[in-house]
């Protein structure tokens, strides 16, 4: 699982005017093991989920989410931000084991 | 408490096996406690929050959910945090969204797991501490707990 997972990220526009609302959709492949299931031997499969999601635009935090085991496998997240300056749109997911999955897009604000 | 819990688990398992839409009454998990802790004992008004969920979820493993909160989203007035809980999952907490004025719009979507038919509640905390909420019942045909 430690191999680089490439998240799929889509912005509804790559160029925006200052003040425009930009929509971000992101999907990342992850089992989101909820810690409730049992294997064939009746042993509980330990929880392993992405528990935190953050998004920064041009270095400034715009949106965050805390995921619980009740988030579906291959978590999908959609949110918006108000365009204010050009820069990278960085999405970071944090795993229970502390590793992170990072995806990046960019936005140009005119 | 313990007996009640076991019975509900069995009922949930029955629904899984027979695929019936047995309306299991929502059991007491920690959802209420989470809402109380989030609200800090203050009352939440049933307004401003829109919770979009299907009335009937065929597959509880992945139920699309959108939460939006009416707010100008300016430095002076914005939605800080939204907690989503379900009263029929093993754990009440589903997701917490945190917005900033730079969010522009307080709206977020994801896909959630629902173990059984239950009520889903979204409670929003504004930057001034005021609270708003919305609750939606969702019928779940196949539970999303993975057995």
How many DSSP helices of chain A? 0
Which runs of chain A of at least 5 residues are low in confidence (pLDDT < 50)?
none
Q: Largest sheet of chain A, if any?
A: 5 strands, mixed
Low-confidence regions of chain B? 9-24
Roughly how many Å apart are the termini of chain B? 22 Å
Helix residue percentage of chain B: 10-25%
Give the number of domains of chain A. 1
| Beta-strand residue percentage of chain B | 35-45%
Instruction: Output the CATH topology of chain B.
Output: Immunoglobulin-like
Radius of gyration of chain B: 16 Å
Please tell me about this protein's structure.
The complex is a heterodimer of chains A (110) and B (147). Chain A has 110 residues and is mainly beta. Helices cover 0% and strands 50% of the residues of chain A. A five-stranded mixed sheet of chain A has the order 2-8-7-4-5, with no helix packed on it. A three-stranded antiparallel sheet of chain A has the order 1-3-6, with no helix packed on it. Chain A is elongated, with a radius of gyration of 16 Å. Chain B has a single domain (2-142), classed as Immunoglobulin-like. In chain B, strand 4 (79-86) and strand 5 form a beta hairpin. The model of chain B is unreliable at 9-24 (pLDDT under 50). Chains A and B meet through strand 5 and strand 6 of A and strand 5 and strand 6 of B.
């Amino acid at each position: 699982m430690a191999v680089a997972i490439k998240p799929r990220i889509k912005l509804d526009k790559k160029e925006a005017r200052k003040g425009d609302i930009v929509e971000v959709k992101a999907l990342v492949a992850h089992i989101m093991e909820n810690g409730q299931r049992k294997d064939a031997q009746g042993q509980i499969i330990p929880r392993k989920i992405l528990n935190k999601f953050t998004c920064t635009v041009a270095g400034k935090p715009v949106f965050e989410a805390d995921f619980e085991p009740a988030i579906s496998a291959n978590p999908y997240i959609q949110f918006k931000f108000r365009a204010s300056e050009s820069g990278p749109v960085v999405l970071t997911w944090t795993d229970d084991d502390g590793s992170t999955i990072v995806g990046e897009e960019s936005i140009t604000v005119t | 408490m313990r007996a009640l819990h076991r019975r509900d688990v069995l009922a949930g398992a029955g629904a899984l096996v027979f695929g019936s839409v047995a309306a299991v009454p929502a059991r007491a998990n920690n959802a209420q406690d989470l809402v109380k802790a989030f609200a800090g004992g203050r009352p939440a008004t049933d307004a401003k929050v829109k919770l979009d969920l299907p009335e009937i979820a065929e597959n509880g493993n992945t139920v699309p959910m959108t939460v939006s909160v009416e707010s100008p989203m300016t430095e002076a007035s914005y939605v800080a945090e939204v907690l989503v809980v379900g009263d029929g999952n093993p754990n009440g907490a589903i997701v917490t969204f945190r917005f900033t004025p730079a969010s522009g719009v307080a709206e977020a979507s994801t896909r959630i797991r629902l173990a059984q038919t239950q009520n889903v509640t979204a409670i929003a905390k504004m930057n001034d501490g005021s609270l708003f909420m919305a609750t939606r019942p969702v019928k779940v045909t196949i539970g999303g707990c993975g057995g």
